[in-house]
Structure formats: C-alpha cells, structure tokens
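Why run this: before we spend reagent on co-expression, it is cheaper to look at a predicted model of the complex and decide which construct boundaries make sense. The entries below are exactly what would go into the expression plan.
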Amino acid sequence: MSIIEIKGLKKDYPLGDTKVHALRGVDLSINEGDFMSIIGPSGSGKTTLLNIIGCIDFATEGSVMVGGHEITALNDRQITDIRLNKIGFIFQTFNLIPVLNIIENVEFPLLLMKKHSASEVRKRAEKLISEVGLSEFARHRPAELSGGQRQRVAIARALVTNPDIVLADEPTANLDSVTGDQILSLMREMNKIEKTTFVFSTHDQNVLKYANNITKIKDGRCATE
Amino acid sequence: MKLLITLSLRNLFRQKRRNILLGIAIALGVTILVLANSFSQGISDIMFNKIMRWVTGQVTVRFNEKGRMNREIFRDKERVMALIKNTPGVLEADEGAGMFCRAIGNGKSDNIIIVGVNTSLEITEETKKELEDSFRLIEGGWKDLENPAINNPVIVSEEKARFLNVKKGDVIRVRFRNMFGQDQAARLTVSGIMKNDNIFMQPVVFLELRNAKLIFGYKPYETASLTLKVKDAVKNSAAIADSIHAKLKPGVAVIHALTARGDKSSVADVLGYRSDEESKKKLSALLKIKSGSVEAALKKDGVVIFNTLAGALKVKAGDEIKIGFARKFEETPAEKYLKVSAVAADNPELKGNVILVNDEKFYDIYYENLPKPAPEAFIPDKDGSWAGLVSPEWILLERTANTEEAKKKYIALGKKKWKGTTIDVSTMYETASDIMKLEGVLKLITLSAVMVLFFIILLGVVNTLRMTIRERTREIGTIRAIGMQKNDVRHIFILETFFLTLFASIAGIAAAYISMWLLSQITFKMSDNPMGMLLVNGHLYFLPTFTGIAGNVALIILIAVVTAYFPSRRAANLSPAKALGHFE
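The model came back. Tokens follow.
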C-alpha cells in the first residue's frame, strides 16, 4: 500500500531572470514500511524531492499525496500539522537544538503535539534514547556529543512521534564511513522495530546495500530500480 | 507556553555578552527614568504634603465676608463644621487662622505670619509624625503652646529667631491689621524654636489657635477658614470637595423680629434684597409703591415695608421703626433702627409683615447679630418671583478645576463686590495645580529624553534580533520542519525580547533604588536658598511609586515587544526549506 504517491511533480526555482528546473516531472510511489533510498549526484534534485515529500517546500506542478493527504492543497497550519504528526526528519547536519539537552531534543516534537502528559513524553523519549544507545548521554547538550551520537539523537527525535514516514537527507554525509554504516544499520533496525517508512537520499553507492527500494534521480527525473 | 518560555530563556542566555550589553543600556534608561520620576514625584509630595497641606489643608473651605479678600470670617463655625464632619472620607477637620504681621524682636524687626495651631485636636499618629517631620523642634515642645503661665507662647523658626535676635523666653511684639481693617498689637513669648529647610515656611510663627483667634479678633464661634485632611487625598480630594460644596447650598437669610414704632408693635420677617442692577429692575416691577419712591427703596440703605405692616405700625415713608430679635450666640437680643424708605402695596407672594432691606445694610445687621433660627419665619416660595431676589445666607462660589480657573474666580470675586459672605471650597491640587503641571512637565521632559535614549536602545534591540535571527536561520528551519507553527516561532523571539527588557528593567529599578539611597545620603545646607524647599531635612527627597514604576516598565516592555514583533514575524514567515538551506 502506497504511503507516498507522486505524480508529474515539477519544481522550478527562480535564479535571476532564468528558472532552474529542479524537478522536471517525477512520478514515484513509496510503500508503507519501505526502507527506500533516493540516489543521484549533487544537484540532481534529491533534496528538493525530499523537501516536497516532507512538506517543507512546495511543488510548482503535480500531485503529492502523503499518508492520503494531497499536500499541495493545504495551508501552512495544516501542512505544519502533517510535518509534526506524520513525518520525521533526519538532516545531514543533525540540526539538533543547541540550547536543549539530548532528552529535551527528543521530547521536543512530542511537546509540540500537546497530546501527552509530561510523564508520557519523558517515558517515550527515554525509550527512544535507549534504543539508539545514548541513555548515558541523556542530560548532555548536543555540543558535548560526537557527530555519530548527534545523528542517533536526530533519529530518536524523528521517531519519537511515531510518524508514518522518516525522511533523511544524506544522513551519513557528515560522518566517517564506519559511523555512517552504524547510523544506516540503526535506521534499518528502527525501520524494523517501529515499522516506519524510511526514505533517505544519498550520493554514496556504498550505502545502497541497506535499502530495499532504490530510486535513481538525475536531472530532475527519476527511475525506480 | 512552558516550552516557548524555556527556549526563549535559554536562547537569551546563549548570547550572553551581546544581551548583557544591551541589557545594561536598557537598565540605564530605566534607572534614569525611575530616578527622574521619583524626584519629580518627591517635589510634588514636598509641595503638597509637606507645605500646602499645612498651609491650606488638602481640602479648604474659605470664607470672605462681604466678598472682601482680607475679611476672612464666618460667623457660624459649628454649622459648617457639622456638615463637613459627616462627609465620608474626611479624616480631620480644623480651623485655619493666619495673619501677616510686623514683628519686633531684640533691636530687629521683620515680617512674620502668625498661624493658629490647635494643639488640643486629637490627631492620628500618622499626622503627628508628619507634623514632627515637617517642623522639627530643636527647643521647646508643641504642648508649651498651651501653657497658661506664658503670655501668648509661640514657636518660631530657627532662622527667624536668629534674624529677630530672640531666643526661648524672649518677647516678640507684633503689629497687624485685622480682618476688619483695625490696627492691632500683641506680645508673643518665644517658647520653642523649630528647624525648617523650606525657606517659605521660615516666616511662620505658630501660636495656639485659641490665642491666635483672640488676638486676631475672632469670637469662639467664628472662624477664618476650615482645613481638612482627607483619606487618599490625591484620589478623593476633588470628590470630597464636590460633596462638601453640594452640602453648603445656602438657604434664605431671614431675621424673625419684633418690630415697633411708638406703642404699636408687630412680628415681622426681615429679608434682604439683592441690589445688583438686574435684581433692582425686577424689584421695580414687583413693588407697587404707595408712599415714598422706588428710587429711595432701592438705595443702599433702602427699607421697604408692605401695607399690612405699615398699617399695623401706623408708619409711612421717612418714619423710623425698631426691630429686635434673639441672637444665636449672644444672650442679649439685638436692637436696630430702620428708616422706612417706601411703603408698598401687599404682594400676593409675600406675607404682609415682611420688611425688605437692601442687602448691603441687611448683611451688616445679619452677620454682626446672627439671629437665632426661627422655623416660623417666612421664606418666599422657592419657585416664585421672589426666589432669586431675596438674599441668601451666603454666596457659594463655583468649584474650580485648576489654578487658572481659581485665579479667574478670585479676580471676579474682587470685581463683583458681593455683599454677603462668599464660601469657596477648594482642594490644594486645584489651587496649586501649577505644581502638578510642573511635575507633569518634569515627567514629560524626562520621558522624552529617555524615549530618545530608548529609541537608540531599541535600534540595538532590532539589530540584535536581526543578527540573532540570521544566526539561527537554520534552527528556525529545523523547528519549523519538526512541526512548530509560525506563531510559536514568532512568540519565541518576542518572548526573548520581553525577558531581556524585563530583566534589564528589574536591574534598572534596583540600580535606581541604590542611586536614590546614595543621593539621599548627601546633606545640603540650603536654608537660605529657595531650592532648599526641594529638600527634606537637608537631603534630596525621592518618592518612587509602584504605579509610576510599573507604568514606566510596562511602557518600555511594550515598546520593546512592538519593536521585536516585526523581525520576529519575518523569522516566523521564513520558508522552512530556505531556512534549512541557509549558510552563514
């Protein structure tokens, strides 16, 4: 069953007097529980595609269904709610909030949801931190952790709301190969434990072994392998 | 909200140096603002509560007989006092009596103001403390003023005693012209010396009220003015003055007398008639003269009787009649002779035994021999033709709102030449509203200067915020991507500015209090300088008020938050994708 359904997706960026065609008509379907990789060289449109799937950027043309919602028809408040409730993000540069400690960073999306009690929030965050193996660093600030540890926190944060989809934009690009492998293994493991759909972009051919579904993207167009 | 507050506070402490510098600038502005406002508030407090309050009272009822400024006398003190004492909000009511005099000491002379002080009045501990703070005795005590063994014991200021070359126990001779224009002299004995920093209070010489009234020529039941202390004066004075004013509406002045000529006598009611031109015209139309003339009837000693009484007494124009009546405060009855100017036909609206007397002559008889109230006395119908033509017991002057109006009123009073006693109810806030204006101007100048300072500071706030937003663009992108709504992003930055301003304001207030304490430790010797009146016991006086400070801080926070709103909104409106792609 498709959790993401994209048809004829185009995205243009203005650049001075000209237009950059970042996506030129992408059709893509991602199934629930997939661990999918979008690969392609730099500038091929991977990040743009992930941003549109993640509802943080808008399509110029085409249809994007995320979890049954046509996101191109929604207003900012509704889109923000979808990001909060249905999508988790893992960024290349980790993007943790520096003034919050690890457990607070993981709790952050749950607190934004305003659905759970403080004890439920704390319990869920501790579980995720334990699953990514950082229990002993729970009270540390992000600056006190290594790159790999920070990305583990980002994974925990992305999963804490129990989202339908986790989007990871080049999650290993800022990590050494050993740590990168560990992170991808962890994501794969979490994909199995939490039954969450993972979509991650990479230009590294070595990480493809982790994916069960690969989409190649080049010059704004893609083909599924 | 807790999450937003946590984030705002932590972000605030993240850029410590920048925020501390900005906070110091805001705190400095708040310090200046609080200091300046407390100083101007202090000046007002000195002027009103340490000077005016003792000179005029918070609410004053002034009496001017025949409308003359120097003839401060009201002949029935208890009547007004009874009305005033029952007014809600009045804490203390006392008589005021003061007189400018020429004083002769030991080989030196100078002008002084003798002020009657009621030492037997039961005053609150608070008033007693305020009195002792305002007039510090360095020799003698207030109770010495009551000592019957001393001839007119007085308390004089240290400076005046030095100038007159007198010390405790010495005699000061005084000459003055009393309210009736008679030159008087008296001997005062120095029984106490007081210290006063206020140059305007240095000529004041305190004498026990009973002694003062005796010297000035007042009878015990007469008074010059009444001064009141009221609850929460700033807030209530005007309303209490209005309430007292409403109670002081005068009735018709009437003398219920026995009138006689030869062996004929009759009961009569003597009424004054108003002698202004407009009233005279109306009287001319109403009076149907049978004997004598209208012109004679309306002269300043004009007396008109009506047919019935004229018949009973067998009098005609030009005859003299005697009136006798019981007095309110004297045991012996009053006897007066009136020359009848005209006899008029009976008037359907007046009783036949009425005698009309020109108000100038009438008030002379009425005030000097205040008649015993007689319920059976005839008073014209208040809705009839005579209502506005007969003389009232007194003339109640209109209330005024400020010094300007009060000045106009007193100028008009001088020109109007009232024949009766005028009663004026005023508060010290309106008679000295210029002081309040001065305070307002001082506050405005300070506020304007500080606003300029704050404008510069707020440029700093805007710049800092813009810098902060630029530095945290990716962070904004992250929290928006995670699911934070635009409003919450905006609130984070506004809250940061709010807390920065709040903390800086608290620090500024603390600094202002420390500065006020330090400044008030300095002793100034300015007893010969008018600026000394701005001091309390030789020290600068600050009066910070909660509402003043809270108002200032609220204003500053409001300005800061409004200033922060626009950059914060810009931050909230950033596209998450663009914000995440931002590189420094």
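The beta strands of chain A are 2-15, 18-31, 35-39, 61-66, 69-70, 87-90, 165-169, 197-202, 213-218, 221-224. Chain A has a mean pLDDT of 86. Bring this page to Monday's planning discussion.
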